[in-house]
Amino acid sequence: MGAMHAAPDAPALLRRASAWVEAHLDRVLPPAGTGAGRLTEALRYAVFAGGKRLRPALALASCEAVGGEPDAAVAFAGAVELVHTYSLVHDDLPAMDDDDLRRGRPTTHKVFGEAIGILVGDALHSLAFESLLERTPDASVARRLGLALARAAGVRGMVGGQVDDLDSTGVAPTEERLERLHRGKTAALLAASCEGGAIAGGARPEQVEALHRFGLDLGLAFQVVDDVLDATGTAASLGKTPGKDRDAGKMTYVALEGVERARARAADLLARSLAALAPLPRSQDLAALARFVVERDR
Amino acid sequence: MGAMHAAPDAPALLRRASAWVEAHLDRVLPPAGTGAGRLTEALRYAVFAGGKRLRPALALASCEAVGGEPDAAVAFAGAVELVHTYSLVHDDLPAMDDDDLRRGRPTTHKVFGEAIGILVGDALHSLAFESLLERTPDASVARRLGLALARAAGVRGMVGGQVDDLDSTGVAPTEERLERLHRGKTAALLAASCEGGAIAGGARPEQVEALHRFGLDLGLAFQVVDDVLDATGTAASLGKTPGKDRDAGKMTYVALEGVERARARAADLLARSLAALAPLPRSQDLAALARFVVERDR
To answer: CB–CB of B139 and A142 under 8 A?
Structure first.
């Protein structure tokens, strides 16, 4: 991983993270055609699907922000991406959001069937912990990283947010409910990405805490932007079906306060997340990624 | 946990493990009615469903077999049971085995809906690692236990076995394919239960290895017995629908070689598993559990 040039460039940071993390994931996933039936192909189809690798990029940049070598965070970055991918595969299932298209391609269960869709998610979920614990040299760091990941993924994090999301259909949005939904559904795993990157980089406790707060606010901003894009984007620009949340009567910030105020809210959250970076020695890459997340158009 | 009497009694060992592990699981599961919607109720419905707690009993007895205090293995025993429970909940889903009944009660997705069924499994899966890593004091032991559990649960273990099972419908059984299927679907997690109990109890490497082999053979025996019961049991005796494997054209030992030879095979595997216990200082409880597994009628 070469030194980055002076003015950080989010697309370049994402490409760098993709290259590192995809090489790592290629090593930890079983080779296609080995083992049980179509499972290994389906795992690779789900994982190598052109995702932005935002969470890995945040983990690597958080590691560097506290003075760590990014190599130290690659196993964790890969594990976070495996958890994220498992959640997308399950989220797309017919009993959940019932999506046929993801990043412009048919979803995993559309190609391999629903049973394999469930099992691909389950296999990636286990593989996240397996690869993390196996490839993090220090046992105490491995344990802290595994814990951060499991908490963010579970009932009090991502899964809780999914249930809030399911329950939000046809419910009048309130700011409090929306924040809880977004915190669980998206922000918990983004916060863990930053927190874990910092832990892998040998951060002091107050740095870990600062990066957790950064990731939490950025995650909330991310989800507000998602609501805006769902309301304003097209299938061609998004690579997925727009307007699904609105059509399903889901609770969103756009439904609560309209597009313009939702955009202003995302900008406020971005400012708050950037403020959390102030005490860190080398946070310019994280700041660039944060701006990119809020200014993206897909 | 009082000292066991001289002649070990498998039902008493299972009751003891249930009491310990259920108290632990009650602590690590979020209280019902907290957090997201119906999720916390559904988690408890799935976990407190009258299971035998065989895997926890094996983990605790393996810990004691190498001279450890069983308390040291409770967090691991609970984690194994959470992984086992998540796999049952997903296995019962309409896209998988489509079971309405489990242990004589409606399955989780029948009560709470299919989306919650998927998410309950996912939440239990994360909670297994969260609770294990959080409540195992030694970081190096925690890492080894997490790794053993993740490997047994994943592509090369339980999930791989599920895919083999899906793919076995209408396929002529061979001994090799059946053993691979059973190894993944059942034996990998039973082997990990014994191996992890031994690690938690401070076992030497050759003891860990012996208990892994014990659990693997016992797991194969367990699955052969399952095939026999599916062919010979009734809904009342099993607490679930019998004959499903046969009706679905699934690959089983009964289909391969008939009930009597399958029973003889289970007895051989039991003998082999018991032989692996020979070098251990205190293995009588494990032997009693192994005999119970092979002689059960449900």
So the answer is: yes
- Within a domain: A298: no
CATH code, domain carrying B238 = 1.10.600.10
Are the CB atoms for A35 and A181 separated by under 8 Å?
no
Residue B222: inside a domain: yes
CA B31 to chain centre: 25
Q: How far is A199 from A191, CA to CA, in rounded Å? A: 12
Give the Å distances, CA to CA, from A50 to A45, A94, B16: 10, 22, 50
ipTM computed for the complex: 0.94
DSSP state of B252: -
Q: What angle do CA A232, A236, A237 make, to 5 degrees?
A: 50
- From B197's Cα to the closest Cα of chain A, the distance in A is 18
Q: Kindly provide the residue ranges of all beta strands, DSSP E only, lying in B7-107, ordered along the sequence.
A: 101-102, 105-106
Query: Could you tell me which chain A residue has the CA closest to the CA of B94?
Result: A115
* Parent domain of B138: 10-293
User: Contacts of residue B248 in chain A, CB cutoff 8 Å?
Assistant: none
Average pLDDT, chain A: 92
Q: How far apart are CA A17 and CA A21, in angstroms?
A: 6
Is residue B260, in this structure, part of any structural domain at all?
Answer: yes
Which residues in chain B are contacts of A117 at CB distance < 8 A?
A: 95
Torsion B51-B56-B61-B64 (CA) sign: negative
Considering its fold, how many domains does chain B have in total?
Answer: 1
DSSP element (H, E) containing A285? helix A284-295
Residue of B nearest to A151 (CA): B130
Q: Are A59 and A194 in contact (CB under 8 A)?
A: yes
Ranges of chain B whose pLDDT falls below 70: 1-7, 35-37, 235-242
Q: Coil, strand, or helix at residue A117?
A: helix
Question: How buried is residue B5: exposed, middle or buried, by Cβ count under 10 Å (0-12/13-18/19+)?
Answer: exposed
- CA–CA separation, B225 vs A218, rounded Å? 53
**Other beta carbons within 10 Å of A298:** 12
In chain A, residues with a C-beta closer than 8 Å to the C-beta of B80 are: none
- pTM, full prediction: 0.94
Cβ atoms of residues A130 and B150 within 8 Å: yes
Q: Of the candidates B294, B274, B293, which has an alpha carbon nearest to the alpha carbon of residue B284?
A: B274
Question: d(Cα A185, Cα A90) in Å, to the nearest integer?
Answer: 13
Chain A residues with CB inside 8 Å of B140's CB?
139
Q: Which two three-digit tokens encode residue A49?
A: 């699907």
Which one of A130, A131, A134, A177 makes the best mutation probe of the B interface by having the most chain B beta carbons within 10 Å?
A130
Return the axis-axis angle of helices B188-200 and B54-65, rounded to nearest 10°. Answer: 40
In 3-state terms, what secondary structure has residue A102? strand
In a domain, A255, yes or no: yes
In A87-108, which positions are buried (b, 16+ CB within 10 angstroms) versus exposed (e)?
A: bbbbbbbbbbbebeebeeeebb
* pLDDT recorded at residue B136: 97
Subunit contact A139:B143, Cβ cutoff 8 A: yes
Over residues A173-217, the pLDDT tens digits come to: 899 989 999 999 999 999 999 999 999 999 999 999 999 999 999
